[in-house]
Structures are given as C-alpha cells and as structure tokens.
Design goal:
Blueprint lengths: L18 H4 L8 H18 L9 E8 L10 E7 L2 E6 L1 H8 L6 E4 L4 E4 L1 E6 L1 H7 L3 E2 L3 E3 L8 E5 L5 H15 L8 E7 L12 H7 L7 E6 L5 E3 L1 H6 L4 H7 L2 E2 L1 H8 L4 H4 L3 H14 L2 E9 L5 H12 L6 E7 L3 H10 L12 E9 L52 H10 L4 E5 L2 H18 L3 H4 L2 E4 L5 H10 L2 E4 L2 H4 L2 H8 L2 H4 L5 H6 L5 E2 L10 H10 L21 H6 L3 H6 L17 E4 L16 E6 L2 E5 L5
Parallel strand pairs: 1-4, 1-5, 6-14, 7-10, 10-11, 14-15, 15-16, 16-17, 17-18, 18-19, 19-20
Antiparallel strand pairs: 1-2, 2-3, 5-21, 8-9, 11-12, 12-13, 21-22, 22-23
Helix pairs in contact: 2-12, 4-11, 14-15, 15-17
Length: 638
C-alpha cells in the first residue's frame, strides 16, 4: 500500500469543519441567546440590507428571455408571474391572456436586457464566510482597475506578494500593541502562497519579525484553502503549545494545533458582527444574481445552533436567497444524531427559503494546499512541506490495504461504512474529493455502499464534490454508478497556472476539472465557488468553464488549460442553473423558467448565452427576483 496519512479525529477539510467555529458553540452563546439577538437585531438588519418581500404580478417583455429548460424553446418573447410562481411564457399576447385571470398586473419592459433563471451556487459555506468578513483580508483576490470605483473581487491580484500581506498586517499589529487595546490578537484570513508572484512559505520566524515575543501580540492567520494556519510564537505560547510542539511545527499548523490556538482567541472576536456578516454574505450572493445558495457543510460550525440561526434568518424574511444544504457528517456520532433529528427534504412543493437535502463527507484535503490525497508526491512537496502531512497529502478515513473495487474488506471507520449508513436510510450524500487516490477510494466506497444497500444513486443524486483530478477510468466508473460531479472551476481559472507549473505538473493538470468529458459521459454537472475558498459569482464560474484561461499566468494572453474540456455557453449556464438545481434536489422548483415553477429569476445587462459575450463575470446584474419578489436592484442601473 502507498504511504498515506489519515486523521482519526476526522477534521480534514477545514472549509467544512472549521475548528475555530466550534469554539463559538459554548454555553455562554446558547441557541436561545443567538436567536434572541437575531430577533432583536432584525429591524436594524432589515434596514442595513433592504429588499422587497412583496410578491408581484408582472409580465416581462422587450428583451432576451432564456428559459434554460430541459426542453422547449431557447428563447421566448414574454414571461408572466403571479403569486410567487411562473404563470405563462411565450408570445406577449398569449401571456397577457393567461395573466388576465390573476388579477391586476404590471408590464415590465426589459429594454433589451436578458432575463434568465436565478443563478444557483451548489457548494459554498455561509457561516465560515461570515466569520471571516471580520478578519483582515489577506486574499489574492481583488484589484482596483484604473478609473473604477471599488475593488473587483473576482479578479486575481497580479502583484500578490508576502510584502502586501505584511503591509496589511502592520496597522493591526500596531493597534494591538497600544495600551488599552481591546485585544492583543491579530486575525487574518485568505493567505495563499500558491498564488504569490514568488511562493513564500509563512512560518513563526516570519511572523515573529512582525510581532516579536516581547511585543505580546498574538498573530493567527488562516490559509485560503482553510486547511492550514500560521501563528507567531506568542500565539502558540498563549495556546499552550509545548516548546517541543512550537519547535516542530515552526508556526505552520494543521487541525489539532489550530483547535488548540482557536480555543484561546477571545470568543467575542470570533463572533464579532456574526449576524450582520451572515446577512452580508447572503446579500452579496443576491447582488451576483444568485437566488439559491447550497451550504455544503451545514452544522460544521455551530452544529444545531447554526441550522436554527439560518432557518430563523429565512423565516424572518431577512435572506434574499434560498438556503439549502448538506449536514457535515465526518464525525459518526454527529452523523447519527443528524439522521435522528432530520429527514431530507427532497420533494416538497412549498416555497421554502430553508431546507436540508443531504449529508456531507470530506475524504481528503486541497490540492493547492498540498493536502489532497495523491498517488505520487506533489511536484513541490520538498520545497514547501506541510507539517504532519505526507508528501502525497492526507485522507480522512482509514485506507484499505488494496484500494480496488474487488476488495470488500474495510476497517470500521472506512468511508464505505459511513456511506452505507446514509444510503441505507435514504439520505443523499456529497463526498469531497480532490486527489487522484482520494477519487479512486471515494468511488470504491460508493460502489461498495451502493451494492450493500441497493440504493439508487441516480434517484438520490449522489455527488462527488470538486472531483478535481479525473482519469478516463474514474469518469467511466462515475457515470456507470450514476454519480455526478460538482466542479470548483476556480481551480482552473485561478489556480491552473500554479497547478501546472509548481504543484501537479503537466500530466496531472490535464486531469483537472474535466467538465466537458463528464458531461459527454452522460453526467449532469455543476459549477461552484466553495466560497470562502473562491469568490461568489456564478457568471464568473461559467466564464471560467467556457474559456479555461489560467488567469495566474504571467503572459498577457492567458493560456488555456486543456481546451478539450471547455464548455459551450449553454452547457456552462446549465451548470449554474437547471443542472445545479437537479443536484440539489430542487429542479422541480427552480433552475429553469417554466410554468408552475417558483419565480426565481435574474435580469442581466447582457445575454450570457451570446457566444460573442466573453466577459461574463462583469455582466451587470440589473435585478434579482426570488419567489416573485424583487430582492436586489442594482443602484448603478436604476
């Protein structure tokens, strides 16, 4: 068997099991306390993040209306909505006739704009994203173009460097050193050495240069992938790490040490403005044209408190988007408790703004963080080793001696045993998998569980999340089993150059996010942000899937990574509308414009299905409508 690394504590992917957020789940921050604070803040939050909850009766016409349905016309002249549902579409006179029995209605002239189904992000993380809004942003995303107001958060910063990180940390460190400072902790998020002009490893030596032990300033920074933390000596000492631990890790932390450090950070810093930030994340999504967010790690942060909070936000009418999700289940007792407390909502016809659809399991780490589970070492593993992690990455479940479909023998905490438990009780499952070896082990485990339970994979719409490195054999096996992949397409657009030149090399990079091959094999695919890992923006994701340009490359004309995997405009938009809805068990309600479905729609400045439109990420979102109510209006276009 190849060398491997696995975690008995199942913390694995911090993007789904952020150990820092578990620190918020304390008696002094009880479920009732959170809900009372939310209800008290509701009027204020409603003013900070205004949107209409009034359902309108209206006919839209005078533009490009794209139903994006599985069958029927590619374009219609008019669309009528009333009572939160789509009533009719087609020629304007016919829609007027159909709407005549639905009371007074207004007509809205699109003035040449495009109207599409509301966009869907089928894999992101709401609560972690909210927490990090209060930390210092050290991300590689965001540039301010000449002559433009504000930062463009969907573009890579071409000058991203460790010097920029130091410059951002400097003022916060200075403030923390002042007498009477609220805290001596400095928290930062989003560091990504793989996207720097020059890859600089961050450790305690570098951070001690910014805040030496005598300054009594504790620095803790989290990598953009969520898998690695960085701390200075003061932070590690305050957390109670022993001198041997401090010397061994050199300030580069994996899960166990991150938990230890987070336990010492004042909880008021972790919870700072959390409720406002939750609303901020949801409204940012609506401003990007999203009407549905699927949280692929519900309960990983605050367990039941998190679920109750998000449900209450939806109930109070504070969320402009629908929230659905999968319950994080890498810990077996928690998985059993979830299945006792909840049932998956797969077929409801009601206009619900919050629903639980599936369970989530995390098999390995991230490839850009050098923790995805591979067969061969990372190309740059020697230059940039990760403490406590093998050069081939980590796997969060026990690895069988012979990882093959024929090997039915599994250890008690094997991934297949979790899957059998879930599938045997009728739960859909999402399994995170990035590395080549992780993918084969995930497929082995799915195959064993499906055989043991006789589950219908297509009916349950079983998913593989990220599915980053796919061989022809893996694609064939997935299609045969009835699985479907959801791709973090930013791996190509943002990290493609780093994977090609530094992390994976040419051969493995060709296996990255094989969107067209998966679709051609008969699988329905989706595109996701994994936000906080990459920026929100379904149109940006469609653009990256259509063109597959490596935006981090130094060339002025960005090279394409594996052009054979480029999607058409239509197939890319399907992957953020109807096919994303299908994967989320919501296609009977949303994802396309069809009579009887919920009136979730977005009005755009340009038609993203027009082949001449190449800069999809910068198409103006004019308005976003959810359930027949306008939830976002762009102030620049009104």
């Amino acid at each position: 068997m190849s060398e491997h690394h696995h975690h008995d504590h199942h913390l694995g992917c911090a993007c789904c099991s952020l150990p820092l957020l578990a620190q918020l789940d304390q008696p002094q921050l009880s479920q009732d306390d959170w809900l009372r604070e939310l209800e008290a803040l509701a009027p204020e939050l409603g003013k900070l993040f205004p949107h209409s909850s009034k359902q309108e009766s209206a006919i839209f016409h005078g533009g490009v209306i794209r139903p994006l349905a599985a069958s029927g016309p590619d374009q219609v002249a008019a669309l009528g909505i009333s009572g939160g549902r789509i009533i009719a579409m087609g020629e304007l006179d016919g829609v007027r006739a159909a709407m005549s029995s639905h009371g007074p209605y207004k007509e809205i002239d699109l003035n040449g704009r495009a109207l599409l189904p509301g966009l869907i992000d089928p894999h992101m993380h709401i609560t972690p994203s909210a927490v990090f809004r209060s930390w210092i942003s050290l991300s590689a995303f965001g540039v301010t173009p000449a002559g433009q107001k504000g930062e463009d958060s969907q573009m890579l910063n071409p000058d991203y460097s460790y010097q920029q990180i130091k410059d951002k940390l400097g003022p916060a460190i200075k403030n923390a050193k002042q007498p009477g400072a609220p805290s001596n902790w400095v928290l930062g998020f989003g560091i990504d050495p793989s996207l720097m002009r020059e890859w600089i490893d961050i450790d305690s030596l570098k951070l001690d240069e910014l805040a030496p032990p005598d300054d009594n300033v504790a620095i803790f920074l989290l990598n953009a992938s969520g898998h690695i933390g960085y701390a200075n000596t003061t932070a590690m000492k305050e957390a109670g790490l022993t001198p041997v631990q401090i010397q061994d890790c050199k300030g580069v932390l994996t899960e166990a040490n991150i938990v230890q450090i987070m336990g010492k950070i004042p909880k008021r810093l972790l919870a700072k403005d959390l409720l406002r930030n939750l609303l901020g994340v949801l409204h940012d999504a609506a401003a990007r044209g999203n009407t549905t967010l699927f949280d692929a790690g519900l309960g990983s942060s605050l367990k039941n408190v998190e679920i109750k909070l998000l449900r209450q936000i939806a109930k109070l009418g504070l969320s402009p988007v629908r929230i659905a999700g999968a319950l994080y289940s890498n810990e077996l007792p928690q998985m059993l408790q979830w299945m006792k407390d909840y049932q998956p909502d797969l077929h409801s016809q009601t206009d619900s703004n919050f629903s639980i659809k599936a369970l989530k399991l995390v098999a390995d780490g991230s490839n850009q963080g050098l923790t995805g589970f591979q067969y061969r070492p990372y190309k740059n593993a020697r230059q940039h080793p990760v403490p406590d992690v093998s050069p081939i990455g980590l796997f969060n479940f026990n690895v069988p001696a012979d990882p093959s479909p024929e090997n039915a023998k599994r250890l008690p905490d094997a991934l297949s045993s979790y899957l059998q438990l879930a599938l045997g009780r009728g739960w859909p499952v999402l399994v995170h998998s990035n590395g080549e070896q992780a993918m084969e082990l995930v497929l082995d485990s799915y195959q064993e569980a499906i055989s043991a339970t006789r589950a219908d994979a297509r009916s349950l719409r079983l998913r593989v999340e990220h599915a980053s490195l796919l061989t022809d054999t893996s694609l064939s096996r997935m299609a045969k089993m009835g699985l479907s992949p959801s791709f973090l397409i930013g791996h190509v657009g943002y990290w493609g150059d780093a994977f090609l030149t530094q992390i994976l090399g040419e051969a493995r990079s060709e296996l990255l996010d094989r969107c067209e091959s998966a679709r051609a094999a008969g699988m329905r695919i989706s595109l996701h942000s994994d936000h906080f890992v990459s920026p929100l923006g379904s149109l940006r994701m469609a653009e990256q899937a259509i063109y597959r340009k490596m935006e981090g490359a130094q060339q002025e004309v960005k090279p394409v990574l594996n052009a054979e995997e480029c999607l058409s405009h239509r197939h890319a938009m399907d992957a953020v509308t109807l096919d994303a809805a299908w994967q989320c068990h919501m296609d009977h309600l949303v994802g396309s414009l069809e009579p009887g479905k919920l009136a979730d729609l977005v009005i755009l400045g340009k038609d993203p299905l027009d082949d001449s439109v190449t800069d999809l990420r910068h198409i103006n979102v004019h308005e976003t409508w959810r359930g027949g109510a306008k939830v976002y209006a762009n102030p620049d276009t009104h």
